[in-house]
Amino acid sequence: MLNKTFGAAICLALLSGSAGAQDAKTVIANAQKALGDLKSITYSGTAKDVAFQQCGANAADMTCRGTHDPMRPINDYVRVIDLTLPASRATGTTNNIGAGGSTTVMPGVFFQGITAQQADVSQPWANSLELYITPWGFLKGAADNNAAVSHKKVDGKNYTVLTWSPTVKAPSGKSYTVNGYIDDKNTVDRVETWLGENIMGDMHILAVYSGWKDFGGVLAPSKIVQTRGGWPFFEVDVTAAKANPPDVATLVPAPPARGGRGGGGGAPAPLVVTSEKLGDQLYRLTTGPGSYDSVIVGFKDYVMMLEAGQSEQRALAYIAETKKLIPNKPIRYVFNTHPHSDHTGGLPTLVAEGAIVITQKNNVEFLDRALNTPRTLLNDTLAQHPRKAKIEAVDEKKVYSDGTRVVEMYHVAPVPHSNGLMIAFIPKEKILFQGDFSVTPGEPANDHVKALVPILERLNIDFDRYINVHTSAQAQYKADVWHAVGK
After folding, report:
1. pLDDT tens digits for 332-385?
2. Angle at which helices 2-34 and 135-144 pack, to 10 degrees?
3. For residue 339, which of 67, 309, 360, 379 sits 20 to 30 Å off, Cα-Cα?
4. Rounded distance, CA 139 to CA 349, Å?
5. Prediction pTM value
6. For 261-279, what is each residue's pLDDT tens digit?
7. DSSP element (H, E) containing 133
8. Widest distance between CA atoms in the chain
């Protein structure tokens, strides 16, 4: 009797599995049919995007209000998706501020390409996911990768959910997951996935497709909104679409190849840290040309690190050097000049060390959410030694002192670079430490420095040495800054 019952259970399980697989295939087929069983599609309109963790200052809006606000407009946006390869290309025109601290608006070209090699789901997920979070790419991925089906209600709406995973694994060894939400009309309303990101942890990537309509024979969404980590990232207002364009291969040509050699593979070269003694238990840490410099300050019972380096590798090297130079004191604080990715890259490592992040109050929500997101897809220091990030906010000014050592921190605003930018001043040695207000000897100041100088005058900060996170070829002083702005 037991054997019969056990056999019946196995048969039932097999039948249930077959039925589930069939259900997924049916859902995929119905959705593909609803979208026209396309081999390729092109759509166009106006778009906007932003460099991650920055503001998209542009001709229409020069004021940075917060993380990803504003976004930069992309005009003449065109995207083509070829499902037979598969591959994707998109292009458009932009008008953004120039490089090197300039606020002069410069025309530019937007281009995003995913080659057939990059679209191989055994290759890095970061390179291909922009294809597979589109409705058409998602359904192709679901059909090719043994999707499962389930049901879920989101914002009061019932969905059939297809779930599949690329064959490539995350650095932690965990599988990536892609979910597509199919409505009762068999259209794909939303696609989500997760990607391990240095600051954002298991960064949630969500693309929402709305306003589906017939664009002269092809069904396409009229609005596309993508968020990353819950923050705005990319949007398109679609005004035209075409199914199976005959010129799909040449519709969005790639930009001319740039000169120079590609970067080599393998692990980055070890960083060799050198230090400059600035005062009693006060050092500048650097790795030479191209370095992101930090300053470490020894208080009675702890150390404060001004900036954490732009990467985990640099943060680990600076932590090790700090412990040699100022032994037997914990790194209690790490000061963040502003929330751009090249100035936050070392923060997860310092959080794992137990340091409290000091940042301007406009950055608190972003960094708190980011640094306290689970890191199951990563294998970095914070993933291996998880801690809850502790953050202290600075409004306009904050002073850290233990009676012998003083560090003053100031919010610098308004400036075009960030609405959460700070400088640190060490009164005893008259040292000003700042993030992106770079001065090049013999050259006029850029627009960022021009915005900083009146603020320094208003604050009446009596500094002498001028230390930039982006290392300078030689030591710089107040006279260099004043000369650069014509004073």
Report:
1. 999 999 998 899 999 999 999 999 999 999 999 999 999 999 999 999 999 999
2. 150
3. 379
4. 38
5. 0.90
6. 344 456 678 899 999 999 9
7. none
8. 98
